[in-house]
């Protein structure tokens, strides 16, 4: 396994960001929630494709939460859960090069 210094920096930086997000979720859970369009924009900003969020949900890698019982109610996601998944995927890619 060959990890470059840049890969190591990315792992450490992402790990710290993930820790902060989990702290936010612990202290104020409502601040961890993002709606579906916000989650989609965040994932796309990291270079993933437009349909990635749907694929992750279908694969049970992310859990959508609907706070309303109405049919048209908003769907929310945990930013900590999204960042956790992205961290795991990127770390897996780095380690398995």
Strand and helix layout:
Layout: H1 5-27, E1 33-35, H2 36-45, H3 52-58, E2 65-66, E3 75-78, H4 79-95
Antiparallel strand pairs: 1-3, 2-3
Helix pairs in contact: 1-4
How is this structure best described in words?
There is one protein chain. The chain is mainly alpha-helical and 97 residues long. The protein has one domain (5-95). 59% of the residues lie in helices and 9% in strands. The protein contains 4 helices and 3 strands; from the N terminus they run H-E-H-H-E-E-H. The protein has helices spanning 5-27, 36-45, 52-58, 79-95, and strands spanning 33-35, 65-66, 75-78. It has a 3-stranded antiparallel β-sheet. A hairpin with an 8-residue loop joins strand 2 and strand 3. Helix 1 (5-27) runs antiparallel to helix 4. The protein starts with a helix and ends with a helix.
Which short descriptors sum up this protein?
59% helix; 4 helices; 9% strand; 97 residues; mainly alpha
Quick recap of the structure?
The protein is mostly helical and 97 residues long. It has helices at 5-27, 36-45, 52-58, 79-95, and strands at 33-35, 65-66, 75-78. It has one domain.
β-sheet strand percentage: 5-15%
Strand order of the largest sheet: 1-3-2
Helix content: 55-70%
Q: Number of folding domains?
A: 1
Q: What structural category do the secondary elements indicate?
A: mainly alpha
DSSP, total strands: 3
Order of helices and strands: HEHHEEH
Low-confidence stretches: none
Mean pLDDT: 94
Cα-atom radius of gyration: 15 Å
**Inertia-based shape:** globular
